[in-house]
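Lab notebook, page 48
Experiment: co-folding of the full assembly
Goal: obtain a model of how the components sit together before planning crosslinking
Operator: M.T.
Materials (sequences as entered):
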Amino acid sequence: MNRMVLLFNNLFEKIKKHGILGQVNKTNQPTNISISKMNGVTLQEAKKLVMRLAVKDDIDMFLDFQEFVVAKLAKNELWGTYSKRHLGKLMDDGGVIQLYFNDDELVGCLMVWFDSEEELNEHQINHLGLDKTAIYGGVMVSPKYWGNGLQRQMGFEIERIVKERGKTFIVATVSPDNEWSYKNLVDARYVVFSELNMSKGKRLVLIKEL
Ligand SMILES: CC(C)(COP(=O)(O)OP(=O)(O)OC[C@H]1O[C@@H](n2cnc3c(N)ncnc32)[C@H](O)[C@@H]1OP(=O)(O)O)[C@@H](O)C(=O)NCCC(=O)NCCS
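Observation: model returned without errors.
Model output:
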């Protein structure tokens, strides 16, 4: 893993466009997402996942899903978990949780939130500007669906939402030991900005300019 801290100027390189899969619907109607890389046994027959944005009634389902995924991790500490209170506040403050379903089965999620001064301070990235920055977090894929590139594909959708909100930067943090998420973020052209010693351990701060 390349952990070298890159200069902030590197962020301004042109971002190569990725294929966007499906449309994010502002009215929160389900959206079909084509899955292009289907190498998982479970997904062999599935051609589409359906994405919709979570509402407050989905929080318990999210928490069950989180518990399920965390229980399957080899190192639980790689994942910072979210509480009901945190998720409720995130939604109240305009944050978005994407949920991806294969029929009725929740298979993945990714969230993004905005205007978090606390996070900008914590990650020492105030120079990006509160009004220009979105925070990426809460990405999970059901273990039996791992290996289908879902984190990256969910990330393409979240970028559309972030752009719609008029933001320029997306910031993600990841443990240096989380090789899977790290690789997916770097493949999606996030750039390592710094490595911080945080209360939950070492975290790489990665930034993508849209
Ligand atoms: C990070 C995460 C979402 C990636 O899932 P994904 O998009 O399905 O991963 P990929 O498709 O890129 O998987 C690539 C390879 O890594 C493997 N892999 C992915 N996540 C893995 C994990 N947590 N443990 C072991 N292997 C994993 C896949 O099986 C696949 O292997 P293959 O190439 O032999 O088929 C998933 O690991 C996860 O839900 N982790 C728990 C939550 C978490 O850590 N979130 C990130 C916080 S920053």
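Interpretation: The pocket of coenzyme A is lined by residues 69, 73, 78-79, 139-141, 145-151, 174, 178, 180-181, 184 (CB under 6 Å).
Next step: discuss with group before ordering constructs.
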